[in-house]
Amino acid sequence: MNIFGVMDVSGSALKAERVRAEVVASNMANAETTRTPEGGPYQRHHVVFEAQNGGTFQDSMVNQLNGGSSISTGSGFKNIYTGGISGGLSGDLTAANPTPGGVEVTGVIADASKPLQRYDPSHPDAGADGFVAYPDINPLTEMVDLMGATRSYGMNASAITAEKSIFNSSLDLLK
Fold it and tell me: One Pfam family of this protein, by short name (predicted)?
């Protein structure tokens, strides 16, 4: 992870949560849509998140300290700094211990649930039996998803603000 690692990770989360909020807003906006270009009622959509590969802590340290040159996996982090670090390192830093990375949206998928059937013979999309197919969208579920996206967005924005504060404090020390 580089010096801007927190911003990279939180920035990816901001983008992903923005997409999630947009999909939730689309679901709420189309909760009563009975006619789509594909035919039939609107289908609820879900956002699929996937963790980005952050690499190992060892790789990140080597890349930061050696200008990007890598070492073999078996050489170990402790062997790089023979005599350079006093005291013991806790844990096994040579293991494949991935540094947490960001998140990315890998897709937006349509919900496969069946549409809700409501009796409304006066509706223009009513069938011969008087039932209309509506999307299976629960406003409460959508609001919970929107609140989750909003909270996650806020947390990541706070992480970026904290990182900026760390940068400013470091710059103040150099003055």
Answer: Flg_bbr_C
Kindly report the backbone phi and psi dihedral angles of residue 103, in degrees, each rounded to the nearest multiple of 5, phi listed first: -135, 150
Asked whether residue 105 is domain-assigned, the answer is yes
Q: Is residue 60 part of a domain?
A: yes
Q: How many domains does the chain have?
A: 1
In a domain, 74, yes or no: no
- pLDDT tens for the chain, 175 residues: list them: 567 788 889 999 999 999 999 999 999 999 999 999 999 999 999 999 998 876 555 565 566 666 554 444 444 444 444 444 444 444 444 445 556 688 999 999 999 999 999 999 999 999 999 999 999 999 999 999 999 999 999 999 999 999 999 999 999 999 8
Angstrom distance (rounded) from CA 136 to CA 117:
9
Within-domain flag for 89: no
Domain range spanning residue 16?
1-31+45-66+101-112+138-174
- Asked if residue 142 lies in contact with residue 24, where contact means CB atoms within 8 angstroms, the answer is yes
Three-state DSSP class for residue 60: helix
Q: What's the length of the chain?
A: 175
Give the pTM.
0.71
